[in-house]
Amino acid sequence: MSSAGDAGGRSIGSAARALAHRVWTGARSVARWYSAINGGQDYQRYVAHLRRNHPDRPVPSERDYWRERYAEAERNPTNRCC
Question: Which InterPro entries does this one have (predicted)?
């Protein structure tokens, strides 16, 4: 038989922890999705590509990478959606 602090065999504390875990997992998923659609991992992928395929080339700073990427988008607007 369930006691007053028991919700279907689980304590209220463990139910709250489970809910918090689900909320946290959902929030992380949304953050990853948002980062992906905004190019969040592009610099890291570019650096890995350079090191793997062009080890003789210097790796630009992240700031320089984004500056060049935005400049290229301005020079060639057909590559963007809007």
Answer: Sel_put
